[in-house]
Amino acid sequence: MARAGLSTERLTTAGAELADEVGFDQVTVSALARRFDVKVASLYSHVRGSQDLRTRIALLALEEMADLAGEAVAGRAGREALAALGNVYRDYAREHPGRYTAAQLRLDPETAAASAGARHARLTRAILRGYALEEPDQTHAVRLLGSAFHGYVSLELGGGFSHSAPDTDTTWLRTLDALDALLRNWPAPAP
Amino acid sequence: MARAGLSTERLTTAGAELADEVGFDQVTVSALARRFDVKVASLYSHVRGSQDLRTRIALLALEEMADLAGEAVAGRAGREALAALGNVYRDYAREHPGRYTAAQLRLDPETAAASAGARHARLTRAILRGYALEEPDQTHAVRLLGSAFHGYVSLELGGGFSHSAPDTDTTWLRTLDALDALLRNWPAPAP
DNA sequence: GACTTCTACCTATAACCTTTAGGTAGTTTG
DNA sequence: CAAACTACCTAAAGGTTATAGGTAGAAGTC
Asked: In the UniProt record, does the keyword rRNA-binding occur (chains A, B) (predicted)?
């Protein structure tokens, strides 16, 4: 009875790979068992079930992205920092589509609180140091940046911009231009 | 043998209701059959399967949103039109979370081409008539608006902004302010 | 080095969802 | 009013989730 060397971590990373290959919602306990050439029930010693597996993948993705974002933003400011952060999300989503959609999984409050989610918020906020924004506009801007990045990436990933000129790479650059200009020129509330 | 009065349309709208109640990915042929108090196999005369059902719900949601967006944008221009369009998406997502996530379903190219997707693009483009944008910036702006709206709505729906000051309603208003300002002041490409 | 103990993985089982095939009872049409 | 159609059925096969309880190999103990 050769042992496959299962563990919660190995299952999580294998699940993440599986997600990237076949899509996050095709990630199933059975498919994972097949990948390890092991019976399904064996996974239940390491993972509580399919929901648990999915949230573990989501947490992994959030951490990985936060790590990359941290590196990318370090030592940069202004538009350069903005572009670095945006590129992290966009590149990650293209290299790891399954993980990226996993990261969008709705987490229950406690899990979310223990996740790398807060790090993402802090990193985005750090970028705003290069721009002159006071509270509460800073928070508004954090949310707007998050929305724009996530929205762009998820629409592009979903094929929303596909096959029509101009290509999405230049739109992405112009989007970064636009967001940079917006932050430098943050408007007062409308009357 | 009383007839339940099934039809593809009734199944689709019932499926949409179900999605709003229990979440789009909990929409299952079995659950729908239960709702009509009918055996599962009976649905397969009206719907090809669970995938077919899901895309029908997605198409319905896209149409409903496009209808609402068309009404909302008519007779408005500039910031007013921008806010009207954004509010349509946001309100729709909050009233019909299941349908909204359904609308994000990745469609195969032919289905997408026959969907209301193009109407959404046209409506967004129509809004830009109130701003002075030439091509290709107009397309970039269409994509940016789509990203910002979708990103905001989906993060808010997923609880991303939850329970932290300032409240999401004012962030939403300030986001509209910001996008309006951005469109009025669209930047030239960075050097 | 034998003995316990832990761990990794197993078989078996039950519940649920999907999908297809083929049948029967209402409803509509000529 | 018979033929044809439609709406719904039973039956069955295959896949996924999940739990309970069992066995073999590895690790620690004397």
From this structure: no
